[in-house]
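Margin note: ligand = erythose-4-phosphate.
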Amino acid sequence: MRIFIDSANIEEIREINNMGFLAGVTTNPSLVAKEKRDYHQVIREIAAIVDGPISAEVISLDLDGMLQEAEVLAQIHTNVVIKIPLTATGLQAISILSKKEIATNATLIFSANQAILAARAGASYVSPFLGRVDDNGNDGMILLNDIVTVFDNYMLDTEIIAASIRHPMHVIQAAKNGSHIATIPYKVIKQMIKHPMTDAGIEKFLRDWKESM
Ligand code: E4P
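Resulting structure:
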């Protein structure tokens, strides 16, 4: 499973990218709005740091608006992936963009049916929102597992991004369920790195080393 960061914060992205495991970035309108910066400039800076797909979402809900935004975003960098919400219009946009060989990420996926339609329309990625499914009293991992099973059955090329990850166990479960990618917030990546036994082990090694001097 490849690891993406779900962030629009340049410092967070740079810090995590320096660790060598980062394969891509996802942003969304809420994450970009938090930065209070020019949207296109943020995407440009991310693309200069990370060598991998960078998802940038359209804001328009109408087809012309989606396509116009997509064209502009796609010109920022060849690694930009156009993130499009899964609506009937979104499916049209995904289909048109895929014919132009512009990569798309179908976002706000809450059912396996939505994922199948996005894949058949030509989406490069689908993003099931695991944490938000859990928030609603259902199990996001069942959704992820359903999508993995269906995509495997028909050998669909569309890659699955486990999104709306809230804690480290989500990441392990996403990997066990065969997700191609997990997009993970900065805070959760930091939680994945840290283990109290590692810290205690380092402390003991250093103590023993000093005592032998
Ligand atoms: C994914 O592409 C989204 O940006 C993100 O994972 C949404 O997560 P949230 O439900 O924590 O806002």
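The two ends are 44 Å apart (CA to CA).
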